[in-house]
Amino acid sequence: MDRSSGSLSTGEMSPEAHLQGTELAEAPDLELLAVMGYKQELRRHYSTIQVFAIAFSIMGLLPSIASTLSFSVPAGPAAMVWGWFTACFFIFIVGIALADLGSALPTSGGLYWWTHHFAADKWKNPLSFLVGYSNTIGLIGGICSVDYSFVLMVFAIVSFVRDGEWMASRSQIYGVYAATIIIHGILAILAAPIMHRIQSACIVANVGLVLATVIALPIGRSRTAEGINSAAYVFSHVENHTSWPTGWAFMLSWLSPIWSVGAFDSCVHMSEEAMNAAKAVPYGILGAIGACWSLGFLSLCIIAACISTDLSSVLESRFGQPIAQIYYDALGRNAAIGFMVAMATVQFFMGLSIVIAASRQTWAFSRDGALPFSNYMKVVSRRFRYQPARAVVGVTITSVILGLLCLINSAATNALFSLTVAGNNVAWATPIFCRIFWGQNKFKPGAFYTGRLSTPIAILALAYLSFSVTLSMFPTAGPAPSPDAMNYTVVINGFRIKHQNINQAISVPNERTSGRGSDIGTSRNSQPMSVVSPVKDPGLAGKWCNPQQTSCAFATSDMLRPGGWLVTAASTETKQEKGRRNCRGSLSIMAVTESHTDGADTIIPTSAHGKPPGDPVLLESAMPEETPQNAPLHRTLKSRHLQMIAIGGIIGPGLLVGSGNALHVAGPAGILISFTLVGILVFFVMQSLGEMATLIPVSGSFTEYSARFVDPSLAFGLGWAYWYLWVTVLSNEYNALALVMGYWTDVVPQWAWILMFWVIFLTLSNLGVLTYGEVEFWLALIKVISLTVFFILATVISAGGIGGKTIGFKYWSNPGAFADSINGVAKTFVIAGTLYAGTEMVGITAGESANPRTAVPTAIRQVFWRILIFYVGMMFFIGILLPYDDKRLLSSGSKTAQSPLTIALSDAGILPAAHLINGLIVISVISAGNSSLYVASRTILYMGRSGKAPAILGRTNKAGVPWVALLFTNLALSIQGEDTSVLPFQAMFYPWGTYIALAANIFLIFFQGYTAFLHPFSAEDFVVNYILLPVFAVLVLAWKFAKQTKIVKLEEMDIWSGRREYGDDITEDVSKKTVWTKIKDIIVG
């Protein structure tokens, strides 16, 4: 904004300045910012997780909850819990609406810039001034409220130390408050080089504080005379300690989450320091809100369960903070001091983070000339690593002045909290309103977009924000508040609006801007730019591209603009810009050199697929036409899919239920030994498989490798045996689902459940591999979170925090650590091997991974943590919670009743345990069934395509789905001059780890069932352990004699077909997609 013109104007940009910005950011971010009329001035060094960390750190979660308990406790525990949950739902809706805008137009001044961009002409300046001032004063109010809360927390600690006999005066509070803000300002400038790392550390600190609290509070409270409050008290008890009606007192409890989760727009203000801002900003917003929503709800449930039922004593605590009283009542003086110190430390860094966010908004607003002293505050300091140091000084001084309110009374102090809410909510609502009602045609979606849902989401967000602004203006005491109980937010906002109007009214147009109007999208560059949407280049279809050629294609200027947009110069001057495109239409470095008056650009590739110079690349459009016989599997599984599949994708009912049988057979120490030993074996097997899966990512995986490197007959036997394994697993999952559903109702017959789930599994599998990836991602995530919660509960139960008795390791003494000495350990090898089955699934999914060179090694490395945490961890916890001779482990009832998780939680008095574990088993069975069908179908697909099964089984449809295989299932490098350096991923401890894995597997194959030969001989155990060996031998020998196959010689091994070289991987799409496009991608691949 230009104060002398009364209108918005962008920062000056010239071609030279634009090129200099390449030192600060990558080309795509530079160009998107240039489209909005700005040059890059700040250094981009914040990753997506660090942008998320800024918002998450400002929210602070537990310190924020602690600071605002005085708003939620008066209405009782139900208001604390459900007020948080409900308000966070609406805040998440607002976050989605702003994420759409933040992805499309990521700039530090986002809120007021979007308002100006989308508003009707006569409303552009008034509304953008309103938003800019509201947002600026809201963020500065956030600094005041966060640091004021920090000071109160510090003085609460001092009061603790003095046993509540000392209270700080208002002048003392203000003095420490002012000193804190000044320290934050100094740190924000001097610590700039490591600030992004500080934000990452804040994530760990915040989450760690939450976990420590939710574990320690119940343990401590359970040992007091009052004990832990009942679930009925936590979730349904309402009180009213205000002078408002009970219903409105409940609504006032929303002020706690509204203030606590109100800093997500800081991601927007970090846009010009974020790498790949079009993705970092929206995901940072939604990640921060989602994390605070879930972790905050968990924290408040625990606090409500541990709070004194005499709420008045909490609200009127002698320590000055309700949370201090809660810690004191549950944990005692010393532990409470420790927690308060940790919370104060986290809150200190909250203040530092919000100073950074507020300074970026202030700098952006000053850059557009809208604030007093704009010419001073818009300067970026190169001395302090391209930081807006003067803007930091400005917000620091303003916060110190605004904090003088705390010298008046508590009502005036509360205005610091309400000011943040009111200012920010107005700033969020206005651009959403302008975009929906005036700017629909102007809006061009970014990498994140909710499609047709965007408008209804925005309307719901506006309705909520209107209510939230009204709520924040209400005094907490009513309905006829005295002057001392007045909410002074309206006074401050009134002053702010009056100043804004005067500031705009006294401005007059000047000669420099009068010719341009007030469109912020216009650059001050002497060469005005035009912006249009990108379109595909038809001139590239079906051609060969050679990186040594001078030109890959000659495209007209309406086909390409670097970074995905078109920018053409009105003059004939030559300019250079970097862009991204390759012959496949995906992202790769290209360059636009000369802009000609005839509107044509010469496109010169600087890299194409990473191939050696001169190696031609055939365009996809020139490939042979796909048919049902040769249609390839779609390579659409993303890194996150493979990582979650590796961590929790096959945590199935076997682990949840079968672990109880293992405990009964071997005892607590025995299962730790057997699962650790088999886990080590699995780890080395996966390391070796990872080498080949990254170099040659094919869905046939080890079955295909055995044909290439050993003998085709081995692949024949292995493929059919492996397919049979997963078909039987799938059959067991159908049966298990019918049984666990029968736990809730016996009205539906078992065969009906099996038929229903048969249809569900078959339908899901035929929707495409991306569907499989998404379903497995979310189901695995639920399982991982559930088991993590169980581990936390198990720790608390063992310590006596829940259940009223300390368990420790007493069951290791009585009945003992081993159930049957070494024999028990040996017997559980089969159980362990069965439960570990599926870890090799990552190798099979590699054939449909977009980026196997990066995704597969990451997933393989996570196998170690999965083994350590989930398998060995599960064995450890059930071993300390239950004796191995507990008869319920072998119950003849439902699987839910047999689960050691159900037994342990029920014994601890967690009554809904059976229902919760039953739900988790249902999720696990669905996930395991889905995975079984996927693995078996891909195995039989390879068999069909390689001639080892009927050819019809090798067919796929256009979506890359092996539908026939699915239906059928449901009814040597050195010899060839290569060395290990060509492997994208190399196994740990190679080659010794590989030798160990091979030897251990051979040993287990023949000795896993040795206990069947002990006196007396057990025919049942012998068949169970060895039935597949003769079947496998018959299959291998029959194929070998029928086809006369030979063992593959080293020099004949096929180590080339199926490879993906650097550059062959599909770049994960960063282009804009609507919700409907994403749904289509998930359904049809």
From TrEMBL:
<feature type="transmembrane region" description="Helical">
    <location>
        <begin position="1022"/>
        <end position="1042"/>
    </location>
</feature>
<keyword id="KW-0812">Transmembrane</keyword>
<feature type="transmembrane region" description="Helical">
    <location>
        <begin position="49"/>
        <end position="73"/>
    </location>
</feature>
<dbReference type="InterPro" id="IPR002293">
    <property type="entry name" value="AA/rel_permease1"/>
</dbReference>
<feature type="transmembrane region" description="Helical">
    <location>
        <begin position="863"/>
        <end position="884"/>
    </location>
</feature>
<dbReference type="InterPro" id="IPR004841">
    <property type="entry name" value="AA-permease/SLC12A_dom"/>
</dbReference>
<keyword id="KW-0472">Membrane</keyword>
<feature type="transmembrane region" description="Helical">
    <location>
        <begin position="391"/>
        <end position="412"/>
    </location>
</feature>
<dbReference type="InterPro" id="IPR050524">
    <property type="entry name" value="APC_YAT"/>
</dbReference>
<feature type="compositionally biased region" description="Polar residues">
    <location>
        <begin position="509"/>
        <end position="530"/>
    </location>
</feature>
<feature type="transmembrane region" description="Helical">
    <location>
        <begin position="751"/>
        <end position="770"/>
    </location>
</feature>
<feature type="transmembrane region" description="Helical">
    <location>
        <begin position="137"/>
        <end position="161"/>
    </location>
</feature>
<feature type="transmembrane region" description="Helical">
    <location>
        <begin position="79"/>
        <end position="99"/>
    </location>
</feature>
<feature type="transmembrane region" description="Helical">
    <location>
        <begin position="777"/>
        <end position="802"/>
    </location>
</feature>
<dbReference type="GO" id="GO:0016020">
    <property type="term" value="C:membrane"/>
</dbReference>
<feature type="transmembrane region" description="Helical">
    <location>
        <begin position="916"/>
        <end position="936"/>
    </location>
</feature>
<feature type="region of interest" description="Disordered">
    <location>
        <begin position="509"/>
        <end position="531"/>
    </location>
</feature>
<feature type="transmembrane region" description="Helical">
    <location>
        <begin position="669"/>
        <end position="689"/>
    </location>
</feature>
<feature type="transmembrane region" description="Helical">
    <location>
        <begin position="453"/>
        <end position="474"/>
    </location>
</feature>
<dbReference type="Pfam" id="PF13520">
    <property type="entry name" value="AA_permease_2"/>
</dbReference>
<dbReference type="InterPro" id="IPR004840">
    <property type="entry name" value="Amino_acid_permease_CS"/>
</dbReference>
<dbReference type="GO" id="GO:0015171">
    <property type="term" value="F:amino acid transmembrane transporter activity"/>
</dbReference>
<keyword id="KW-0029">Amino-acid transport</keyword>
<feature type="transmembrane region" description="Helical">
    <location>
        <begin position="173"/>
        <end position="194"/>
    </location>
</feature>
<feature type="transmembrane region" description="Helical">
    <location>
        <begin position="280"/>
        <end position="305"/>
    </location>
</feature>
<feature type="transmembrane region" description="Helical">
    <location>
        <begin position="644"/>
        <end position="663"/>
    </location>
</feature>
<protein>
    <submittedName>
        <fullName>GABA permease</fullName>
    </submittedName>
</protein>
<keyword id="KW-1133">Transmembrane helix</keyword>
<keyword id="KW-0813">Transport</keyword>
<feature type="domain" description="Amino acid permease/ SLC12A">
    <location>
        <begin position="972"/>
        <end position="1049"/>
    </location>
</feature>
<feature type="transmembrane region" description="Helical">
    <location>
        <begin position="201"/>
        <end position="220"/>
    </location>
</feature>
<feature type="domain" description="Amino acid permease/ SLC12A">
    <location>
        <begin position="641"/>
        <end position="971"/>
    </location>
</feature>
<feature type="transmembrane region" description="Helical">
    <location>
        <begin position="335"/>
        <end position="358"/>
    </location>
</feature>
<dbReference type="Pfam" id="PF00324">
    <property type="entry name" value="AA_permease"/>
</dbReference>
<feature type="transmembrane region" description="Helical">
    <location>
        <begin position="989"/>
        <end position="1010"/>
    </location>
</feature>
